[in-house]
Amino acid sequence: MPADTTDTTDTTDTTDSTDSTVGTAKAAAALSDVAREPGATKPDAILVADGIRRQFGGLTAVDVGHLEVQRGVITALIGPNGAGKTTFFNLLTGFDRPDAGSWTFNGRSLDGIAAYKVARLGMVRTFQLTKVLSKLTVIENMRLAATGQRGESFLSALLPMRWRGQERANTERADSLLGRFTLDAKREDFAGSLSGGQRKLLEMARALMVEPELVMLDEPMAGVNPALKQSLLGHVKTLRDEGRTVLFVEHDMDMVRDISDWVVVMAQGQIVAEGPPDNVMANQVVIDAYLGAHHDSDISVEAEEQRLAAERNRGADQKETPR
Ligand SMILES: Nc1ncnc2c1ncn2[C@@H]1O[C@H](COP(=O)(O)OP(=O)(O)OP(=O)(O)O)[C@@H](O)[C@H]1O
Ligand SMILES: [Mg+2]
Question: Average pLDDT for residues 165-174, to the nearest whole number?
C-alpha cells in the first residue's frame, strides 16, 4: 500500500440499508407517544439526568433540568457553539464533576463514578478532538481501550492463564472491529499516521472494545471527507441496529436529519427543545437559539423554509376543509 493512501480507501459501506430502515421504523414507533417538549419522559430511558449544573466562574455552561435518553435509538444532541454539549458529555461520563445534579445509567447512579468505571458499566464516549494515541500502533490503541477489564484485577494477576485468555479475546475482538471499520490494513501503523477521518473511525472502534450499551459520540463526522462521512453514518446506524443506544453531537443538519430518531436541542446550557428531527428543526425556539448564535447556520435557513412550508400547507388545508 502506498504511504499516501487517503480516506477514499475507507468508503466501503457494509451496512444493509434494509436493516437500517427497519431500525428507523422501530425507533419511530418506540418514540411515537413521547411529548415533543424539553425533558419529555421516555418509555424506556437508559440514561436519566436531573438538575445537572456546571459553572465555570460566572458562566453557567450546563443547566439541564431533566433529560431522558431512550434506549436503542439514535438521539442527536444539537445546539450552537458554546451551548454546553461537550461539557454535558464530560459530566455524564465522569470526565468532569457537576456543581449540582444527579444522573443514572440503567437505573444506577453515576454520581462520583470515575470515567473508566462508567465505560466498564457500558457507557462510553468519543471526543470532539480525537484522543487516539499517535505514538502507539492502531492495534495497540485498540488493546489499550480494553484495559480495565479482567486482566487488570489483582486476582487475575495471580492467574496468568486467565489473563492470557482475556488478552487473546481482546486481540480477537480488536481485529474483528478493525475489519468492520476497514482499518485492518492499518493494524501495525502508528495512529499518528492516520488521516483525520481514519482517526474518527479508530475512536469509534476503540469505544466498542468494551461492548458498550450506550455510545456517546462528540462530533463524529467533523473534519471527515464526504465519502467517509457516508461510511460513518452507516456505522452509527449499525450501532443502533445491533441494539445499542447512540447519543451524538453534530452540527451538520443533513447528517442529523439522516440518522437521528430523536433530537435534543441545547442552548446556553439548557435543553430548549426535543422531538423528531423534522419537528425540531421547524421549531421557533430552535431557530431563535441558532439565530442568536450565528445567523448563517444551515439550521436557521432550513428551519425557516420548513416553517413557511408548514404555514402554506396549513393555509391550503384550511381552504380545502372549511368548517
Ligand atoms: N474548562 C472550561 N473552563 C472554562 N470555560 C469552559 C470550559 N469548558 C467549556 N467552557 C465554556 O463553557 C461553554 C460551553 O462549552 P462547550 O464546549 O460545552 O460547548 P459546545 O456546545 O460543546 O460547543 P461546540 O459546538 O463549539 O463544541 C462555553 O462558553 C465554553 O467556553
Ligand atoms: Mg463541543
Answer: 88
Domain boundaries of the chain, sorted by first residue: 7-132+212-276, 134-193
DSSP state of 99: S
Among the residue ranges 4-8, 146-150, 169-173, 273-277, the one predicted with the least confidence is: 4-8
Residues near 208 by beta carbon (within 8 Å), at least 6 away in sequence: 124, 177, 215, 239
Return d(Cα 274, Cα 283) in angstroms, integer.
Answer: 9
CATH code of the region 7-132+212-276: 3.40.50.300
Q: 78: CA distance to ligand 2 center in Å?
A: 10
- Separation between Cα atoms, residue 265 and residue 275, nearest integer Å: 9
DSSP single-letter state for residue 136? S
Question: Cα separation of 162 and 226, whole Å?
Answer: 44
CA distances from 111 to 99, 100, 102, 126, 212 (A): 11, 10, 6, 20, 19
Nearest ligand to the C-alpha of residue 267? 1
CA of 137 relative to ligand 2 center, distance in Å: 27
Return d(Cα 310, Cα 164) in angstroms, integer. Answer: 61
